[in-house]
Amino acid sequence: MAALRMLWIGLVLLGLLGFPQTPAQDHDTVQPNFQQDKFLGRWYSAGLASNSSWFREKKAVLYMCKTVVAPSTEGGLNFTSTFLRKNQCETKIMVLQPVGVPGHYTYNSPHWGSVHSLSVVETNYAEYALLFSRGTKGPGQDFRMATLYSRTQTLKEELKEKFITFSKAQGLTEEDIVFLPQPDKCIQE
Fold first, then answer.
1. Active-site amino acid positions
2. Contact assessment for residue 120 and residue 132, using Cβ atoms and an 8 Å cutoff
3. 110: Cα within 13 Å, side-chain hemisphere
4. Closest CA to 186 of 100, 87, 117
5. Under 8 Å between Cβ of 58 and 82
6. Is 105 helix (H, G, I), strand (E, B) or coil?
7. Which residues pair with 150 in a beta bridge?
8. What is the pTM of this model?
């Protein structure tokens, strides 16, 4: 009886504190027959959606960023993003490590001190890509983010609708979605 009580207490604590900070691996959808070499090159972050409280607070001041995707020396991808922050151009590099099927990656978030999973869910390589990232920001704090990348800075209406539908399918709401305006600097050629 005492062992059963300890088991229930352990399960309750896991529910309250969250599971260990490891990325989801088996239930993330990935672009069928993903071709990493066709995914390389310049992309613009045209749409974002997230359940993060930080994102909800800051989404009104976010701008489109330019991301150059290149192969990493470890077989993964380097995402080098240039964006406007506090009227300055900043560049950050995110290194994605391949995991499992092609199109599924993990990356370390130094800010949150956790490992996140990222999947290229859908892309036609020439025009758009839908990405989904998940992880934790601390005990019991599930993090989800959908990203719409575009090869151009101008977004077609049907891609906006596709992204809204995609984001809602990930459990995000209309209030969690933003289409990013173009800044007047940092992403020009």
1. 65
2. no
3. 4
4. 87
5. no
6. strand
7. 44, 128
8. 0.82
